[in-house]
Automatic annotation (TrEMBL):
Allosteric enzyme that catalyzes the rate-limiting step in glycogen catabolism, the phosphorolytic cleavage of glycogen to produce glucose-1-phosphate, and plays a central role in maintaining cellular and organismal glucose homeostasis. GO terms for biological process: glycogen catabolic process. It comes from the Bacteria. It is an enzyme of class 2 (transferase). GO terms for cellular component: cytoplasm. Its cofactor is pyridoxal 5'-phosphate. Its EC number is 2.4.1.1. One of its GO terms (molecular function) is glycogen phosphorylase activity. This is Alpha-1,4 glucan phosphorylase. The modification N6-(pyridoxal phosphate)lysine is found at K646. It catalyses: [(1->4)-alpha-D-glucosyl](n) + phosphate = [(1->4)-alpha-D-glucosyl](n-1) + alpha-D-glucose 1-phosphate. Belongs to the glycogen phosphorylase family. The lineage of its organism: Bacteria, Bacillati, Bacillota, Bacilli, Lactobacillales.
Length: 803
C-alpha cells in the first residue's frame, strides 16, 4: 500500500482516538508523538515480522553485534525517512494543523551510551539494516541512561536520566524469550554415566533476563532488523528464594544504570555483573535460535557471527564455551574451534587506563564456572605457545597475570579477528600496544576505519543541504555514498557555492536562536562558528582550544580596536563524574565564557557557548552550523573519532592533528582543504622515548604563552582559584602529559590561517564543498560492507525492490 497524505491523516486520527479517546486538536505534542510512533510501529510491523521469518526460512548467516552501549538518538524522524514516508507524514501532520517539529522534539533521546563507541554501534545498526544484512544488536536496557548534565555556577552537576518515565513506544517486551542467568554459588565437575565430566551447580542466584526488542528499519528496503536489550528481573518461580530485600535490590541494580565513564577502568563488581548478564543472555538466545534449525554444531560458525564491541562483551567467549561443553556435551577442541570461528573483536582505545582487567577473586566468586573455563583457555594458550614462541613472549600474552584477568587478551585469543578503528590506530595496535599478539597471530589483525550514517547525519540533520545536493547530483548518495563525489563538479560553480553558504548561514541562525532561548546569549551568525563536541578528556585537549581563546582575549584587551575575525566557540562535552580534572576544565571554560561574553571590549569578536547536556540531538543541531571542526587530540591517542566525519560531511573544515581518522580525512580532501598542526605520532613517540620534554622550557622561551598561563592563577579569570591552579600545575609542575604547550604555537598559527581563509568567502565555500564531496568513503555503509565481507562473512541480501 502506498501511503497518501489523506490515508495517513485518516489512519493517524484513528490511532490517536483509540489511544486517547479525545480530540487531537486539544492534545499535547507528547500525546501526538505517542500516537505517531504507534502508527509507525504498526506500519512497519509486517516488515519486521517478515524480515525475521525470511531469516528463519532461508537459514541465512546472521550477525550479532554485542555492545554494552547504543546511542540511537531520537527515532521518529529516522524511521519515517527510512520507511520512505517522511514527506507524506509531515505534510499530513501540518495539514491537520499540528506542529511536526514539536512532535519530533517531544521524543526523549535515549542516552544508553557514553560517546563514540555507543554512537558507532547505532550508526552500524542503521547501515546493517539499510544494506539488508541479517543483523541483530544485543545490549542492555538501562533504566537510567547517561546522566543529564547541568551547569551550576559553571560546575558540572549530574542528574539522573529517567528516560523511561513516559514509557518507550518503540520497544516490545518479549517475555516468552526470557532466559535465566546464574550467578555465584558453587560448581564442581562430576562424571556422568558416559564418562564425561559435567558441572554441578549449587546455591546459585538465578536472575531472569527479559528482552525488549526494537525494530531497526532499513532505508527504503522493507528490512526491519532487531535490536535486543535485556532487562534484569526476579524470576517468578524464584520469588520465594529471594528472602532479603537486599537481594531484591541487587537484582534490580543490574540493569539500573549505565556506567558514566568511558576512559577510566574501575573494577566494579556491578559492572562485571552487567557484562556477564547481557553476554550470557545474548549467547543463550543465539543458541536457542540455532538449535531450532536442527543443524550440526559444526554449522554454527557458518550461521552465526558474534561481534564483540570493545572488551565489555568478551565474556561471550567463555560463555559460549560453557554452553557448548557443559550443556551440549561437545569436546573442548570442537567447542574451541566453533567459538574462535564465530567471534570477532574491535578495539576502540589504546588508553591504558581504559583497558579492562578483572580481579581473579571477583570473577571466581561471581561466575565460578566461567572462571574455570577462562583458566583452562589460559593454560592451553600457554601450553601451545611456549614451544612456538618461548616463555618470555608467551607469558606476556597470558589472560591471567598478577591476580587479574585481562579482557583484551581473552578477546584476542578467543576470536578470529581483531580490528582497530582507523589506519593509524590499527598500526599502533600492531606495532606497539598489541605487538606481542601481532607476532603470534598476524593474520587476525585488520583495520576497519569507522563510519557514520549519512542518512541521519546529512539527510535528517541538514535537510536544506540535502535538497541542494539532490538537485545537483540526484539522490543516489543515500544508498551509494560514493556518489557524493559528483558534487565536486560544483566546486567552482558560483551559484552552488552561494547556496551552500546561504544554507550554512541559516543553520547558524537556527543554532543562534537555540542559544538565545536557552542561554540568553546573542550570537552573530556571520561569525566563524568553531566547534568542539566530544567527551571531555585530557587527551582530547579541550584545554588547548581554551588557551587559544584566552590568547585572542588578551590580544583584544591589549588593543580593543584590533581587527579579528569574529568567532563563536561552541563546546559540548560531558565529563565522567569521577574525573575531577575533566570537570575542572569544564569549570575553567565556563568561567572564561562568563568573562569573555560579558566584556564590552570583546563584543562579537569572541563568544563562547558551552552547551549543557551534549548528546545526539544537540549534535544534530550543532554540526550543520559548524565552520570549523576541532579535532585536536594528541597524535596517537584518539583511536578514530567520528564527529570529525559528521562535521566534514556538513561542510566544516577540519582543524586537526594527524591522529585517528583525521589522517584519512587529510588524504581524501588534500592538504589544501584541512588545517593541520602539531606533532605527529612518530614525533610524540620520539619525545616520550627521549624523555627530554620540559614544559617549563617551552614556557621560558615563549613569553606570550607564559602570560596566558599566568591568567589561570592571577585572578584574570574570576572564580577559578582552585581549578586554575590545578590546571596550571598540570601543565607546568607535572610537565604537561598531553603536550598542550608543545603544540600551542602551531595550533595558533593554524587558527590564523583559518581566519585569513575565512575572509575569502568563495574560496572557503569551495573548500567546504570539497569536504562534503569527499566524505562518501566515511559512510558506515562502506565500513559495514567491509566487516560483512572480511570479518563476518555475511551477505547483503537483494531486497524485494531490487529482485
Ligand atoms: C571504556 C570503558 C572503560 C571502563 C569503564 C567503562 C568504559 C566504557 C566505555 C569504554 C570504551 C571507550 C572507548 C571509546 O568510546 N572509544 C572511542 O571509540 C570511537 C568509536 O570507535 C572512536 O571513534 C573514538 O576515537 C574512541 O575514543
Amino acid at each position: 500500500m502506498t501511503l497518501t497524505t489523506n490515508i495517513f491523516k485518516k489512519e493517524f486520527k484513528k490511532v490517536f482516538e483509540s489511544q486517547h479517546a479525545s480530540n487531537i486538536k486539544d492534545s499535547s505534542s507528547e500525546q501526538q508523538y505517542a500516537a505517531l510512533a504507534n502508527f509507525i510501529k504498526f506500519y512497519s510491523s509486517d516488515n519486521w515480522k517478515q524480515t525475521n521469518q525470511l531469516y528463519i526460512d532461508e537459514q541465512v548467516k546472521q550477525v550479532y553485534y554485542f555492545s554494552m552501549e547504543f546511542l540511537p538518538g531520537r527515532m521518529l524522524k529516522s524511521n519515517l525517512l527510512n520507511l520512505g514516508i517522511l514527506d507524506t507524514v509531515r505534510d499530513g501532520i501540518t495539514e491537520m494543523g499540528l506542529d511536526f517539529d514539536a512532535i519530533v522534539q517531544s521524543e526523549v533521546d535515549p542516552a544508553l551510551g557514553n560517546g563514540g563507541l555507543g554512537r558507532l554501534a547505532s550508526c552500524f545498526m542503521d547501515s546493517i539494516a539499510s544494506l539488508a544484512i541479517p543483523g541483530n544488536g544485543n545490549g542492555i536496557r538501562y533504566r537510567y541512561g547517561l546522566f543529564q548534565q547541568r551547569f551550576v555556577d559553571g560546575y558540572q552537576v549530574e542528574l539522573p536520566d529517567n528516560w523511561l518515565r513516559n514509557g518507550n513506544i518503540w520497544e516490545v517486551r518479549k517475555e516468552n524469550k526470557a532466559v535465566m542467568i546464574r550467578f555465584g554459588g558453587e560448581v564442581y565437575l562430576k562424571e556422568d554415566g558416559e564418562n564425561k565430566l559435567r558441572p554441578i551447580y549449587s546455591n546459585t542466584q538465578n536472575i531472569l533476563a527479559v528482552p525488549y526488542d526494537t525494530g531497526m528499519i532499513g532505508y527504503e528496503n522493507d528490512v526491519v532488523n532487531n535490536l535486543r536489550l535485556w532487562s534484569a528481573e526476579i524470576p517468578p518461580e524464584e520469588e520465594i528464594n529471594f528472602k532479603t530485600s537486599a537481594e531484591r535490590v541487587l537484582v534490580n541494580q543490574i540493569t539500573e544504570v549505565l556506567y558514566p565513564d568511558d576512559s577510566n577502568y574501575e573494577g566494579q563488581l556491578l559492572r562485571l555483573r552487567q557484562e556477564y548478564f547481557f553476554t550470557s543472555a545474548g549467547i543463550q538466545s543465539i543458541i536457542r535460535f540455532f538449535k531450532k534449525q536442527q543443524l550440526p554444531w559444526s554449522e554454527f560458525p557458518n550461521k552465526i557471527a558474534i561481534h564483540v564491541n570493545d572488551t565489555h562483551p568478551a565474556l561471550c567467549i567463555p560463555e559460549l564455551m560453557r554452553i557448548l561443553l557443559d550443556e551440549e556435551g561437545l569436546s573442548w577442541e570442537k567447542a574451541w574451534d566453533i567459538t574462535k570461528k564465530s567471534i570477532s573483536y574491535t578495539n576502540h582505545t589504546i588508553m591504558q587506563e581504559a583497558m579492562e582487567k578483572w580481579p581473579v577473586h571477583m570473577v571466581q566468586e561471581l561466575i565460578p564456572r566461567i572462571y574455570q573455563i577462562i583458566e583452562a583457555i589460559n593454560q592451553r594458550h600457554i601450553d601451545k605457545k611456549i614451544p612456538l614462541y618461548g616463555e618470555e613472549l608467551t607469558y606476556r600474552t597470558t589472560i591471567i597475570s598478577d591476580g587479574n584477568i585481562k579482557m583484551a587478551n581473552l578477546a584476542i585469543i578467543g576470536s578470529h579477528s581483531v580490528n582497530g578503528v582507523a589506519q593509524l590506530h590499527t598500526d599502533i595496535l600492531k606495532e606497539e600496544i598489541l605487538h606481542d599478539f601481532y607476532e603470534m597471530y598476524p593474520s587476525k589483525f585488520n583495520n576497519k576505519t569507522n563510519g557514520i550514517t549519512q542518512r541521519r547525519w546529512l539527510h535528517l540533520a541538514n535537510e536544506k543541504l540535502t535538497q541542494l545536493i539532490d538537485t545537483k547530483i540526484g539522490k543516489e548518495w543515500k544508498t551509494s555514498p560514493a556518489e557524493l563525489r559528483q558534487f565536486k563538479a560544483y566546486s567552482k560553480d558560483e551559484e552552488t557555492l552561494n547556496l551552500l553558504s546561504d544554507i550554512k548561514l541559516e543553520n547558524k541562525k537556527r543554532f543562534a536562536a537555540y542559544a538565545k532561548e536557552k542561554y540568553a546569549i546573542e550570537l552573530d551568525p556571520t561569525a566563524l562558528f568553531d566547534v568542539q563536541i566530544k567527551r571531555l578528556h585530557a587527551y582530547k585537549r579541550q584545554l588547548l582550544n581554551a588557551l587559544h581563546i584566552l590568547d585572542r582575549y588578551l590580544k583584544i584587551k591589549d588593543d580593543p580596536k584590533i581587527e579579528l575575525q569574529p568567532r563563536v566557540f561552541i563546546f559540548g562535552a560531558k565529563a565522567a563524574p569521577s574525573y575531577i580534572y575533566a570537570k575542572q576544565i569544564i569549570k575553567f571554560i565556563n568561567a572564561l565564557a562568563e568573562l569573555v561574553n560579558n566584556d564590552p571590549d570583546v563584543g562579537n569578536k569572541i563568544k563562547i557557548v558551552f552547551v549543557e547536556n551534549y548528546g545526539v540531538s544537540l549534535a544534530e543541531l550543532i554540526i550543520p552550523a559548524a565552520d570549523i571542526s576541532e579535532q585536536i587530540s594528541l597524535a596517537g591517542k584518539e583511536a578514530s573519532g567520528t564527529s570529525n566525519m559528521k562535521l566534514m560531511l556538513n561542510g566544516a573544515l577540519t582543524m586537526a592533528t594527524l591522529d585517528g581518522a583525521n589522517i584519512e580525512i587529510k588524504d581524501l580532501v588534500g592538504e589544501d582543504n584541512i588545517f593541520l598542526f602539531g606533532m605527529t605520532n612518530d614525533e610524540v613517540n620520539r619525545m616520550n622515548r627521549e624523555g627530554h620534554y620540559s614544559s617549563k622550557t617551552v614556557l621560558k622561551n615563549n613569553p606570550r604563552l607564559n602570560r596566558i598561563l599566568e591568567c589561570l592563577i592571577n585572578g584574570t579569570i574570576p572564580d577559578i582559584e582552585v581549578e586554575g591552579r590545578v590546571i596550571y600545575d598540570s601543565l607546568v609542575q607535572y610537565n604537561d602529559e598531553y603536550y598542550v604547550l608543545q603544540d600551542f604555537e602551531s595550533f595558533v598559527a593554524a587558527q590564523e590561517r583559518a581566519d585569513i581563509l575565512y575572509q575569502d568567502k568563495p574560496l572557503w565555500n569551495q573548500k567546504a564543498l570539497i569536504n562534503i564531496a569527499s566524505s562518501g568513503p566515511f559512510s558506515a555503509d562502506f565500513t559495514i560492507m567491509r566487516y560483512a565481507e572480511e570479518i563476518w562473512n555475511v551477505k547483503e541480501r537483494p531486497t524485494k525492490d531490487k529482485v
